[in-house]
Amino acid sequence: MTRYLRPDSPEYEAVRRPAMPQYGEVRPAVIAQCETPADVAEVLAEARKEGLPVVPRSGGHCFAGRSSTTGVVLDVSPMSSVEVSDDVAVVGAGTRLSRLYDALDAVGVTIPAGCGPTVGIAGLTLGGGIGVLGRSHGLTCDSLLAAEVVLADGRIVTCSAEQDSDLFWALRGAGGGQFGVVTRLWFSTLPTPVATRFHLTWSRADAVGVIDSWQHWAPYAWDELSASLRVTATEIHLFGLTTGEFSAPMEVSPTFAVVEQLPYRRLKESLVGLGDDPDAGESMAVSKSEFFAGPLPVAVIEELLRDAPGDVNFTPMGGAYNRVPATATAFAHRDTAFLLELVGTDRAKLAQVFSPLEPYGTGRVYTNFPDPTLDDALTAYHGENLGRLREVKRAYDPEGFFTFPQSL
Ligand SMILES: Cc1cc2nc3c(=O)[nH]c(=O)nc-3n(C[C@H](O)[C@H](O)[C@H](O)COP(=O)(O)OP(=O)(O)OC[C@H]3O[C@@H](n4cnc5c(N)ncnc54)[C@H](O)[C@@H]3O)c2cc1C
């Protein structure tokens, strides 16, 4: 049954706010908390009758506020469930990552996915899903076997490689909220790995050398190594996991180093928020990011470090991410070495600091890190898959019921 929360409902204030505080003032006309696909179909029909826009919300972490609206927030969080059998996990679209990992860990399996414990599995998967097992096992969406979707006209379809295969292709990487409301996801699971966690830090004064060593090493290392780099105002953090022996080819010795084998679930939890400033309040941060296909010149790194207004995050790609052809799923970024993300509070400042990097970037942007300032956003997000995505959109949402700035 759907639970409707309106501005006069006691829970409305708390529930309407997404995880990103900068969208906390958007006031939906109604929040519809749906328990079943039939509930979703009913809400879509009602909204259509009333002429109200609908946005689905899973974990509410969209960087561009796309799961907030003054119309109807269709909240799938009541559909939070995980069932595992025969190497397949059936996951309700409202499940948050921490609950998912706990449920999978209890039966000795996992899936490759991100770190944020309250991130929603639906939003993460529909945009791709980068995580510490990604270089060895691919994106979260590469493990997707099927998805149940309620379309704009109320039809409920279960798409897979065999059934509604175009829709299934598009759901793997085009980004959430484009084709319908996903209510259930089927994933192939992996046995929980035995893994070693590492966390090394250096003083920020060593940043140029550390970044330069990292960019020639981490994206090209053996697949079972995932080493991310975070440069804060005072330190550099190198962290991640490996299922083999750990060694890092940095020329400068770290000021701190922990290398330890941990049960996988604890390991994953230990990577959350590494390098966060414990005194920072609620973050109104915005970010700008791009995929890079090869190393940056040292002079460009120096300029970046001089001007960066906040953290600089480097995420290694390569490995299994790149073994899937760019057109095999809607996720088009299969030839990249790393993702670079600049964090700040002022979008204009970020654009200015980012511009010297652009000649070295691929011009491609991760759909799960949406950037409202992009000039040609659809090419940046979808690359060569854009034409086919437009066809799928026409076939499954011909009236453009699901729409937002930068949507298909
Ligand atoms: C703290 C934090 C940590 C992160 N860590 C990672 C990481 O490790 N790896 C990574 O790849 N990304 C990461 N991200 C980015 C994350 O993948 C995106 O923000 C993602 O879109 C969030 O999904 P959500 O369901 O939480 O957000 P939402 O805001 O609920 O949804 C995101 C988009 O998907 C749509 N959507 C939501 N539910 C559905 C549904 N059921 N059906 C159809 N469309 C839907 C929404 O309308 C919106 O457009 C992180 C983000 C944050 C804020």
Describe this protein with a few key phrases.
408 residues, alpha+beta, Uridine Diphospho-n-acetylenolpyruvylglucosamine Reductase, domain 2, Uridine Diphospho-n-acetylenolpyruvylglucosamine Reductase, domain 3, Vanillyl-alcohol Oxidase, Chain A, domain 3, 7-stranded antiparallel sheet, 5-stranded antiparallel sheet, 12 helices, globular, binds flavin-adenine dinucleotide
Please write out the topology:
Blueprint: E1 3-5, H1 12-16, E2 30-33, H2 37-50, E3 54-57, E4 72-75, E5 82-85, E6 88-92, H3 97-105, E7 109-110, H4 121-127, H5 134-137, E8 144-150, E9 156-160, H6 165-171, E10 181-188, E11 190-191, E12 195-203, H7 207-217, E13 225-231, E14 235-242, E15 256-262, H8 264-270, E16 286-292, H9 298-307, E17 312-316, E18 338-344, H10 347-354, H11 377-382, H12 386-396
Parallel strand pairs: 2-4, 3-4
Antiparallel strand pairs: 1-2, 5-6, 6-10, 7-11, 8-9, 8-10, 12-14, 12-15, 13-14, 13-17, 16-18, 17-18
The chain binds flavin-adenine dinucleotide.
GO molecular function, one term: oxidoreductase activity
Family: Belongs to the oxygen-dependent FAD-linked oxidoreductase family.
Organism: Kribbella antiqua
